[in-house]
Amino acid sequence: MVLRGFERRLEQLVEGSFARAFKSAVQPIEIGRRIVRTMDEERSVGVDGSRVVPNRFVVILSDDDYARFTEMSEPLRAELEASAREHARSRSSVFVGVVAVSLVVDPRRREGRFEVEGSYDSTTGAPGSLVFEDGTRLPIRTRLTIGRLPDCDISIDDPKISRRHAEIVRSVETGGSSIVVLSDLGSTNGTLLNNRPIARHELADGDTIDVGGRLFRFEAS
């Protein structure tokens, strides 16, 4: 299901001016499948018993194939990273850090041949992100405020939303791990987490936040 969704999004991404680029031997969906396979093959078990999968992926391409991908490398990387997150969620797996895909060139590689190298990288702790309904992602570095006021990080002009409605705060715990907490700021209509009203609650990957009918999804990496 994850890869089918990825394929559908990729069809929209490569239509028009990008379409000719992907008559090459290396297709974007092949890379997506290889990343997913790498996650499954290199999965390990964390100290708490959780399923841990690689979060850094290097896609090694020939000169010619890399050149074909250059024009749309950023949206492609974003889709590949999204497919990795979706696959991890579907398998109840976790990452040790931020998910990142990079495309590199190997001049010795033949056209049509590519490789994906997966690794675990915890040097940059996952800040977590809010995902809007249109797919836009907003990283949570330290604090995000949501409300009607223009100086809120997420300003929404809607009478159902209070001036300062809610906030999301990331804090680093002893030992370097981090938690992300959602708090209602005394709003008139309240803040819902997974359809339940909350005052303050630690967020988990995949949680849905409802602020005055506006929906956001929290992703941990």
List the helices and strands and how they pair.
Elements: H1 2-14, H2 28-41, E1 44-45, E2 51-52, E3 56-61, H3 63-70, H4 73-90, E4 93-94, E5 100-105, E6 115-119, E7 129-131, E8 137-139, E9 143-147, E10 154-155, E11 166-172, E12 178-184, E13 191-193, E14 196-198, E15 200-202, E16 208-211, E17 214-219
Parallel strand pairs: 2-4, 3-5, 9-10
Antiparallel strand pairs: 1-2, 3-6, 7-8, 7-17, 9-11, 11-12, 12-15, 13-14, 13-16, 16-17
Question: Can you walk through the features of this model?
Answer:
With 221 residues, the chain is α+β, with helices and mostly antiparallel strands. The chain contains 4 helices and 17 strands. It has helices at 2-14, 28-41, 63-70, 73-90, and strands at 44-45, 51-52, 56-61, 93-94, 100-105, 115-119, 129-131, 137-139, 143-147, 154-155, 166-172, 178-184, 191-193, 196-198, 200-202, 208-211, 214-219. The strands form 4 sheets. The chain has a 6-stranded antiparallel beta sheet, with no helix packed on it. A hairpin with a 2-residue loop joins strand 16 and strand 17 (214-219). Helix 2 (28-41) runs parallel beside helix 4 (73-90). The radius of gyration is 20 Å and the shape is elongated. The chain starts with a helix and ends with a strand. The mean pLDDT is 85.
